[in-house]
Amino acid sequence: MPVKKPKTKKKSTNKKFVPNIVAFACNWCSYAGADTAGVNRIQHSPNFRIIRTMCSGRVTPAFILKALKLGADGVLVSGCHFGDCHYIFGNYKAVDQFEKTKELVKTLGLDEKRIRLEWISAAEGPRWAQVINEFTEQITALGPSPLNHKPKFNK
Amino acid sequence: MMENVAEKIKKSSAFYCLECGKCTSVCPISRFNNSYSPRRMVAEGLFYGGNELISDNLLWSCLTCQLCSQRCPVDVRYSEYMRDIRAEAYSQGKWGNPSHGGTFHYIMDMLSSPNLKQSRTGWINDNLKVKTKGEVLYFVGCLPYYENYFAKDFDFSPISIAQDTVKILNYLGIEPVVMDNERCCGHDLYWLGQLRQFDELGQINLKEIEQTGAKTVVTACPECALVLKKLYPERFGSVNFKVKHIAEVVAENIGKLKFNTIDMEVTFQDPCRLGRHMGIYQQPREAMLSIPGIKFLEMPHNKQGAICCGTTNWMNCDTTSKQIQNSRLIEAKDTGANTLVTACPKCQIHFRCAECGEETEKVGIKLTDFVNLVASALTG
Q1: How far apart are alpha carbons A135 and A114 in whole angstroms?
Q2: Residue B237: left if φ>0, alpha if ψ -120 to 50, beta else—which one?
Q3: Quick one: how far is CA B225 from the chain centroid?
Q4: If I label A35, which of A67, B147, B228, B293 is the partner at 20 to 30 A Cα–Cα?
Q5: Hey, where are the domains in chain A?
Q6: A108 and B118: CB-CB below 8 Å?
Q7: Who contacts B17 (Cβ-Cβ below 8 Å, separation ≥6)?
Q8: A3: distance to nearest CA of chain B, Å?
Q9: Which CATH class is domain A21-142?
C-alpha cells in the first residue's frame, strides 16, 4: 500500500486584491437606500464600510483625505438627489466640496477615480447595490492605493 | 511625564522667567483673548509640571510668531517651549482644533509616504523656463494645494505666486529647477511638535534636493525658507546648499531688473518667519522702493514689532484670529496705503479669509504678494 504523503496547505503568494472602500452615506436618503438594498436582499460586494453623516454636505475634503490617508483604496460619497435634500441645499455644498477634493487628490498623485460622488434616494436599493458593485470593480482594476501600506492611524 | 516637561523647560531656558509679563502684554492673542497668557503658560509649566497645560486647548493657539521672545528680558524661547510641550501633549493623544477640518494636516501626513508620486507641476506654462537639474532650485512649497483649495473661495490664485517667481528668475537669466516629487517642508508639523513626521518629510526633501545638484534653493514662502535654512540643519546636521527667499534674490539684483512705473501706495506686512525668525526686514523694502512710482508707507507695528496674521500651522483659528487679522488690516488701511503687500502666501490667505468672513467688518484694502507686485512691474 503506497504511503500517502501528508497534505500540506500551500500558502498562496499572490493574494487577490480585495479593496477597502469607505462609503459616506447621508442619513436621509443614501443610508436608507443601503438599508433598502439589505431589506430586499440584493446581493452586492461586501468590501465597503459605511459611515453615516447627517448630510452629504458635511463631507468636507478633510473626511475624504483622512479616509485615504488611513489606507482606504476608494471613497464613495453619497447623498440625496438635487431638490430632495433634507437641508435644502446640502448636496449643492457637497458638489463644491467634492470638486475641491478631486483637485487635491489629483495633485497628490492619486487617481481621481478613487473617489466618487453619487446620488441615491431611500427607495433606490438596487441602485445602491449597482453603484457599490461598479465602484468595487473600478477600485479593483486600479489596484491598492499607494498609501495603504500604513494601516495604523497614529492620531 | 513631569520629568519630560522639566527637561523641556530647561531646554528653552524658561527657568529664567522673571514673571515680568512683557510676553503677555505684547502677545497678539492675549490682546483679544484674556484667558490666553504666555506668562501663565510658562508659570504653569514651572510650578505645576505642565499637567494642566498639556490638556489645555489654548496650548495649540500660540502663533509661534516670537513677538514675546523679542521683548523677553531673559531670552526665554517661548515658541520652542510651546513646541516641546506640544510634542509631549501630542504623544499623549492631545490635539487642538485644526482649521479646514485638518485637510492640510492630512495632506502633510500623506506626503510623508515615500510611495506617493504627485502631479504638482501642472502650473508650469510655455512662457516659463524650468529645468530638472541645475544650480538653482525653486522650492514651490504647498502652493499647488492652496490653489486647489482656496482659488475658488477667494478672488486670488495662490499658484500665480509660483508662476511669477519663475518669471522673475527667468528675467534674471536663471532657469530654476522645479522638483516633480517635492514634499511639504514640514514647517507646521515642526511647530505642532510632530517631529517624527517632520523628519520623514525632511529626509525625502533633502534626498530630492541632493539629486538635482542644486547649490542655491530659492523659495517664495518664508516658512519653507525657515525650514530649509535653519530647521533642517538643526535636525539633520549641515546641508550643502544655500537658501534664499525671493525677496533677497530681488534685492541683490535690483540693478538687473528693469521696472515700469506703477502708481501705488503700499504698506508691508512682515511675515513672522521672514522677519523675527530669519531677520530679513530690509530686503523686501529695498526691492519695493526700487520700483518707480511706488510710495511706501510703514505701519506703526513694523519690522521687529510686526503683528502676525493671526493663524499659524492651520490650528485653532477662531474669533481671536479674526480680530487680530481685522485689527491688522485696519492698521494697514490707516497708513493711507491702498495695497497691503505680504511676502507669505499664508498671510494673504488668512487676511482674505478675514475679509470675506461675517465675524468682522470688511476693511477693503487690496492684498497682493510681494512676488506678484514685482513681477507685474517688470518690463517686457
Answers
A1: 9
A2: left
A3: 9
A4: A67
A5: 21-142
A6: yes
A7: B39, B42, B43, B46, B74, B76
A8: 50
A9: alpha beta
In this predicted model, what pLDDT tens digit does every residue of A39-95 receive, in sequence order?
999 999 999 999 999 999 999 999 999 999 998 999 999 999 999 999 999 999 999
Cβ–Cβ contact A150 with B under 8 A: yes
Closest by CA position to A117, among listed A143, A91, A136, A138: A91
Q: Is A18 on the interface with B (CB under 8 A)?
A: no
pLDDT band with cut points at 50, 70 and 90 for residue B1: low
CB contact under 8 A, B110 and A107: no
Q: CB-based contacts of B48: which residues, under 8 Å, 6+ apart?
A: none
pLDDT digits over B217-242, tens only? 999 999 999 999 999 999 998 889 99
**The pLDDT of residue B146:** 94
Non-local (6+) Cβ contacts of B35 within 8 A are B58
Task: Give the pLDDT confidence of A140-152 residue by residue, as tens digits.
Answer: 999 888 887 544 4
- Asked whether the predicted pLDDT for residue A153 surpasses 50, the reply is no
ipTM: 0.90
Interface contact flag, A66 B107, Cβ < 8 Å: no
Check residue A9 and give its pLDDT.
Answer: 62
Query: Residue A65: its chain B contacts at CB < 8 A?
Result: 103, 106-107, 110
Would you say the CATH fold of B256-377 matches that of B100-251? Answer: yes
**CA of A106: which chain B residue's CA is closest?**
B119
Of A63, A66, A109, the CB nearest to B119: A109
- Domain ranges in chain B? 2-91, 100-251, 256-377
Domain at B100-251, CATH class = alpha beta
CATH T-level fold of B256-377? Rossmann fold (3.40.50)
